[in-house]
Structure to design on (41 residues):
């Protein structure tokens, strides 16, 4: 029962958090790609 509860409520909770962040104007966080490009070479 607990596993079913977690599987159902986790997507709903993450959607509500993302929607609240969007409505409050929070900018999406993005990593700078320069760090990844330097490590690959």
């Amino acid at each position: 029962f607990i596993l079913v509860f977690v599987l159902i409520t986790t997507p709903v909770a993450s959607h509500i958090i993302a929607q609240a962040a969007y409505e409050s104007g929070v900018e999406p966080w993005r990593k700078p790609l320069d760090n990844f490009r330097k490590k690959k070479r």
Summary: The CA atoms of residues 6 and 12 lie 10 Å apart. The helical segments are 2-24, 34-40. The chain has a mean pLDDT of 84.
